[in-house]
Amino acid sequence: MLIEMRGELSGGKVVVEGSEAEILGFRGFGKKKDRIVLSLEEAAVLLETSKLVITDEGGTDLTLAEFLKLAVEIAPKFGVRYLVYRDLKGRGYVVQPGRADFWLYPRGVKPGEKPARYFVRIFSERDCISVKELGELLILARNMRKEPILAVADEESDVTYYEVKEAKLETQEGKEGGDDITEKVTVTLLGDRVILWDTDVAEYLYRTYFFGTLTKEKRLLLSFPEAVYLMKRGLLELNGAPLESQYSNVKPLNGERLIKYARSIEPEFMDKYQVYADLMEKGLIVKTGFKFGSHFRVYRATQQKHSLYLIHMLPEDHVFTLPELSRAVRLAHGVKKRMIFAFREQEGGALRYVDVGRMKL
Amino acid sequence: MLIEMRGELSGGKVVVEGSEAEILGFRGFGKKKDRIVLSLEEAAVLLETSKLVITDEGGTDLTLAEFLKLAVEIAPKFGVRYLVYRDLKGRGYVVQPGRADFWLYPRGVKPGEKPARYFVRIFSERDCISVKELGELLILARNMRKEPILAVADEESDVTYYEVKEAKLETQEGKEGGDDITEKVTVTLLGDRVILWDTDVAEYLYRTYFFGTLTKEKRLLLSFPEAVYLMKRGLLELNGAPLESQYSNVKPLNGERLIKYARSIEPEFMDKYQVYADLMEKGLIVKTGFKFGSHFRVYRATQQKHSLYLIHMLPEDHVFTLPELSRAVRLAHGVKKRMIFAFREQEGGALRYVDVGRMKL
Asked: Which residue of B has its CA nearest to A75?
């Protein structure tokens, strides 16, 4: 560029006036009026690439170092915003810095021509995001009809992008297991799981509905969520009362008694169980996700070989550190599954499922 | 087996007497005296495979269901111990159940012939293990000259084994960076990182010692640990004092001032920094592990392409849930790295590095 364009740092923005402003305007920077008001991020990138000279209010030229130092004083989050802005521009996107988020346009589109497709929320590796905020982000996205992106600048100043969306888990294909079992079968408590003794029912529940683990001796080892689920449907009967001494005033009511016991060894059992039951009712096949560090791995009935989702239930007041989020998503990605977090927006509220995935921009 | 062997459940053990005991003795079960005393796990497996009839003290035969129910009443951890015992026997190992741990012998070896090689600590998917316990396990292992294994039975009654060992991180090959820089270079704070302006020094530190990230404009973006490390060695000078208003009584002492600022935005910064500095002093190359959800990924100077370790610093009172441990180890394994947890056994104590890996038995 041959013209030396000049802007003035004033009131936390950089103002470019006159004909110079027009040139910038056509390049997707700033806001078009009679003058262009550049955000600090826009100005910094133009200064860095020698396309703009920035002066202070006294008219003295600022070096990039001076400008960055002032920018950090004006906006404490400037550092990480600047890194993300630079990164997105470098990838050929049109980006408009807003107060909290950046607006991201499809490549080659000028602001005003088409609406922004994404809004980008900006984080540093050491920031946190709460489950509540994730939920709010999705509501905001729905209202604005845009898709949310989390941009995280790590210590190497590398930016990782995550897409966040409502998980679509509904399915027509499954059927709930065990309706054709007419007599109650006996199970025995074995620590934190139960054994089902009837070898025919064991094999049937295992092969047809993928419940439990079948032993060599054709007995079925059921997890607590599985056992409670089948008991609530009247299919199982708990043999004996090994816990009667502890719960002598509790009538052996099967399901309820097992839940009470399960909660005594796993306080958040019910939260987890409700997700389990909800997924089962959606016709999905649900197994433990222990090997992947999450509560459940979930299959579709028509595609049993490879589990599709890892699902982890979180308390409604959970706060993610970003490395924690990164770890869960990276792991799911590495084993070709989607990472889904389940939570309630408020205590007793409906279950929500949020799908968070790595995004290649 | 043609002889019907009989044992009696008595005092929390199953006792087999006389000639029958001898036969069992040769098969690596129980304890050899004039009679054989079987642990509950041993007895349950023999009962399950119809090799033993177990009676109660009144002489009445017990079904497997009855026996398991009694066993859980006697030993609350019986359920998961039984699953792990069955699994190890099924894999052809000789196992001796002890009070807390199982003793595991190499395949085909009889107890007494050779010492046990491993001790196996038993967990359910919903148990926890503290960093303190991990440390104690290693001390125990050293004293007993055995290797520790964690066995975790998940909800599917599948058992996953983890080896735990001291990490060997020492290296002779590395050299610390920057000794050949004689003049202080200026850096500017940019949010939660710093920029180094001198393009020659930037390129030198980046290419020779792998510090930071080099921008297109040949400026070096350094993370706080990197910047503090170089400052403590007198190589960098912080430009200006953007935080003077906040810390007006703090003299601009470079390293210390930056640490104070870093701690204000990341309270556990020093813990993390001390691990960084320790690894650097061992001659290793240390970068952020954000993409893998841990603090650092670590390379050896002679093998820069692929990082070897993921290292995560934990507070000394940290308690792992087992899914959390599983997630970290699974992720590291999936990207062909070792998962190493750093911690201090007590506040102010020496740093310890524990390597936890999946083990195929």
From this structure: B191
Helices A40-48 and A64-74 sit at what angle, rounded to 10 degrees? 170
Q: Which of B156, B191, B293 sits opposite A288 (nearest CB)?
A: B156
A4-to-A21, A23, A47, A184 alpha-carbon distances in Å: 12, 12, 11, 86
What is the per-residue pLDDT across A109-153, written as a single tens digit (0 to 9) for each? 877 788 899 999 999 998 999 999 999 999 999 999 999 999 999
Residue A73's Cβ-side half-sphere holds a number of Cα atoms within 13 Å equal to 16
- pLDDT tens digits for A5-24? 899 999 889 999 877 777 77
Instruction: Pick the residue of B41, B80, B150, B155 with the most A CBs within 10 A to test the interface with A by mutation.
Output: B155
Q: Give the B window 217-246 contacts with A, CB below 8 Å.
A: 217, 221, 223-225, 239-240, 242
Higher pLDDT, B199 or A250: B199
In A, minimum Cα distance to B215 occurs at: A157
B290/A160 CB distance under 8 A = yes
Residues 6+ apart with CB under 8 A from B154: A288, A290, A291, B125, B160
Distance separating alpha carbons of residues A287 and A294, to the nearest angstrom: 11
Query: Helix crossing, B64-74 with B78-90: angle to 10°?
Result: 120
Distance CA A244, CA A257 (A): 10
Residue among B299, B309, B312, B353 flagged as catalytic = B299
Task: Compare all CA atoms of chain A with the CA of B63 and give the residue at the minimum distance.
Answer: A197
A168: nearest Cα among A307, A317, A285, A308: A308
Bridge partner residues of B134 (DSSP): none
Rounded to a whole number of angstroms, the distance from the CA of A321 to the nearest CA of chain B is: 9
pLDDT band at B361 (very low <50, low <70, confident <90, very high): confident
Q: What is the CA radius of gyration of chain B?
A: 28
Buried b (16+ CB within 10 A) or exposed e, B313-325: bbebebebebbbb
Degrees (nearest 5) of the Cα angle A244, A189, A175? 125
B29 by Cβ neighbours in 10 Å (0-12 / 13-18 / 19+) ranks as buried
3 state SS of B84: helix
